[in-house]
Amino acid sequence: MALLLRELGYPQGTDQQTVHWVISHPEIEIFVAGDAQDRPVGMVSFSHRPQLRLRGRVATVDELVVSEPWRRRGVGRALLAQVVERGRVLSVKQLQLISPLASTPETRQFYQACGFSEMDSGIFRHAETETRR
Hints:
By secondary structure, this protein is an alpha+beta fold. Helices cover about 30% and strands about 25% of the residues. The protein is built from four helices and four strands, in the order ααβββαβα. Strands 1-2-3-4 form a four-stranded mixed beta sheet. It is globular. The relative contact order is 0.14.
């Protein structure tokens, strides 16, 4: 997962302690796609939690990455399809994917082709709590 996160633009990747923390959390799930030798070629992580205003559960795609040689081969689409299906099982009221404003037009088109529509763009972060990549 650390190598995939580096491809996503996080040079520090992740560490074993954080991986264990995330995979043991009841409201975070990770799907990993592997090649024929069972090496990871893509992953998606998403979180889901109850929300008052929706009177139900909301889910968010937190990370989606496919290794460069495996892009445009259906891996990302299959990973997002798994998240959508899991959302159905969890009866989520809303499934969101937050994409940086700097996303390429191709990335935005990919999300739209997978059924996501661009909606709100007002994301604010508290500067003092931001951690460096």
